[in-house]
User: Fold these one by one.
Assistant:
Number 1:
Amino acid sequence: MRLVLATANPDKAAEIVAILDGVELLPRPPGVSDVAETGETLEANARLKAVALVDATGEPAVADDTGLEVVALGGAPGVRSSRYAGPEASYADNCEKLVRELAAADDRRARFRTVALVRFPDGREVAAEGAVEGTIARRPRGDAGFGYDRLFVPDEGDGRTFGEMTAAEKHALSHRGRAFRALAARLTSP
């Protein structure tokens, strides 16, 4: 199977390529502009991106959207995770805002969720979700990963943040790893 990647984020693209084994992934064509993530859910945003790539290329496309849901913040930043500190926010900006907003919080529980979706030119879709429970560290730790990885400590791990893990360790536990492995299983099942 051959799919066009909807993401232009090189960090996310590298993770998807590493996780989605047995599928030929084509990079997003350089002429395709960014898709506005105006959906109210992760699935809606993944669908917007996948549909835009199918329309632009005529090829099946794979897209995802991820949200960090923090209990003490009522589920925020959620679907707005990538622009939590503003529309042009960097990873560091988003992490700094999260640390600041949780400075006095005792409840640091959080969940990472990813929805991965393949859209075919005929309109068919296959989607899967992955989630991982954890807590938010008081300060960033580690040098690996991207986004909130240096702050997120998965419950199933050994106390390290995703930013302190190797890529293989992270993929085994992560929301994105779970979503894309489930997606691969659905794509290959009869």
Note: Residues 140 and 151 are 5 Å apart (CA to CA).
Number 2:
Amino acid sequence: MQEKPKLNLEKSMTMFEEAKRISPGGVMGIRRPYNFVEGEYPIYLTHGYNGHIVDVDGNDYIDMLCAYGPIILGYNEPEINQAVIDQMAKGFCFSLVQPIQNELIKRVIDIVPSAEMALLVKTGSDATSVAVRLARSYSGKDKILRHGYHGWHDWCVEVPGGVPTAIQELTLEFP
């Protein structure tokens, strides 16, 4: 059996070594290098296009993770890019709401048959935390059953360093 050549990840690994000196753990996110064998996968990307991502060493991959879910239409799509540019010309990241939020929520409600209301959040961690808070409010129960990765808030973090014991006791993990 012929062995396949190793990926060239020289730049990525150099950047990772630097990152470990300046940031705890080197990088953030679910795909942290300590979850894998170092030197066997890319860490740093330069860009994406369609359903592909390209790392700092020039390796091109099909992104099967779709950026953990939100990139269902692909990277660098002209129509989406233009809509973002148009919105940025009006400003972005306001502390108050713009009318476009109501328009988007109404579209979601129209598209999702069971949706009577909708809430927009910025991250997957925010989404799972909202879901837990709503479930606790509705059920009156405090404990959470958890399996797998759901973000990095106290109730769902994989490595509970710095998380109060009382919170850890409310989260029960199952295989």
Note: The radius of gyration is 20 Å.
Number 3:
Amino acid sequence: MRIGIFGGSFNPPHKMHESIAHQLLERKLLDRIIFVPTSNFYPKAGLISDENRFKMLELMTEDEKKISLSKYEFGRLTYTYETLEHFQREYPSDLIYFVCGSDNLNEMDTWREYQKILTDFKLIVIPRNHDMSSLLKKYEKYRQNITVVELDNNYLSSTNVRKYLKDKDYDLVKDYIDEKVLKYIQDNNLYE
């Protein structure tokens, strides 16, 4: 089985995250996807609580049979290579893929043990405003483990969604967030 580890802050999770997962499954590039939200130990401004982000992911994916969630990174600072190794131990007979945007690949050489990620695991990279040919040249040594996948409408960012939420522009944001997630955000006064 090919399992995609889809990490991120998911602050908040939005329809683009869901669309990426669906497209990778529909195209049969992956058999299963595990969303792994980063913990609050990650130094990122405006990151709401682990539990709120996890609950929103649950609401967004509750009817999905091939998508699951993991709290593996909660409660500690975890590096990507450690997360991937964890899932490889958990699923020893499966291929573990790291699903990321080209923005992640662009800076991956600054990550701890990045060579291990690029050598020991497969990457599915979604282009996001980067020159992919120069980016792939940068990681030419690892090219056999990198698959670039062009997807439809993959430029929505959580930063923009948070701005709409802060401005209480709910008419606009409802196009980008699952309605159950939006209701949860409103009911809990998140992102205000």
Note: The longest helix spans residues 15-26.
Number 4:
Amino acid sequence: MFHRSIVDKLKIWSEKSYRKPLILRGARQVGKTSAVLLLADSFDQFIHLNLDKDDDRKLFSAHTEVRYLFDAICLHAKIKPVKGSTLLFIDEIQNSPAAVQMLRYFYEEISWLHVIAAGSLLESLTVKGISFPVGRVEFLPVRPCSFSEFLVAFDDSQSNQLIQQVPFPEYGHDHLLKQFLLYTLTGGMPEIIEIYRHEQSVALLNPVYEGLIATYLDDVEKYARNSTMAQAIRHTIRHAFDAASSRITFQGFGNSNYKSREMSEAFITLEKAYLLQLVYPTTYVEKPVKPNYRRSPKLQLVDTGLVNYASGVQADLLNFKDIHQSFRGRIAEHITGQELLALSDSVLFTLNYWTREKKDATAEVDFIWSHREKIIPIEVKSGKAGKLRSLHQFIDRAPHALAVRIYSGKFNIEKATTLAGKEFTLLNLPFYLINKLPEYLSFAEK
């Protein structure tokens, strides 16, 4: 059952006493609707409106008072408008500004009603000057399936149970690493996982990848403010996958003639659409972390499986036993970023990497992670601890002595020393344990 963790979070929301309408944020085909349908099984009544349909959308334009609107919705759904265990799901809500504004009144006047809204193109509302009612809705990001959910989809309960053990038992390493390599190859899009689960063929996945990218390209006009911007966004989508986990510059991105401002707007629009995230650097080693938006960001795409397909590196992952070998190590970094994003329930959460303050400095740590009062450096690299020079430079400047290396080796914690002589604890975490990072950081501090 995919997105089990999202369904669990939806149940927690549904049981809250002071519950606001919930907005699900995420790209197309990440499983937003499927998760809600699974939640609906626990309700006495379920109403599903899809505002791509004229009849469903017209309900909101025909009624301006929420009590009459709800009566009309119930009549439309052929259920009795009674107070009880009822879930109302408004899908593709971006198609109706009136529906967006009505969320406020569902909260204020029919607070017993459980209301969830979703849409793949919610950023188009900002182009129209429409925003969600401030303080009267809450948000939950829905991203591609994590590795843990991937195991659930393949009914590999034994592996999932092993992952829950801290520390991880060494005998399970080879099996879990093999499973994670498969997850890295296919990615976490629910439809992809479903097809591979039944067919066990990567070749049969490629038309689905192609269809997803084509859909993203087709959607561009819906949230571009004009035809020129639509062309810039479409160019960005076509060339972004090849730049995954690379530092990019907006000016001339993808060997184009586009100016920095045009490309910046295109990337920001796609970021709002949850198709990518711009990962900006910081020079800070302690809180509060302040990203430097004047420096080049790295590019994190929605899903590693799509990156593999669009960049033509699927064969590499099939032939290599170590993820680090594929795409000059960029796939290893990208899947790590994807797993780190899956750890957060906040729509405001962003990834960052670390660089030294000097502009010409080459020191760069792949990611940083906030853990209690600490900012933890994370390197995605194979090799010995002594070769992690950028990580050493971070630790030399940090007010603590804890670092993480993500790699294909077995879990262990070692005592290491920076090149400058500072002793620190290095948490060596295999890829398949990234989604347990917070627990292992606490374990390493004991």
Note: The chain has two domains: 4-141, 203-445.
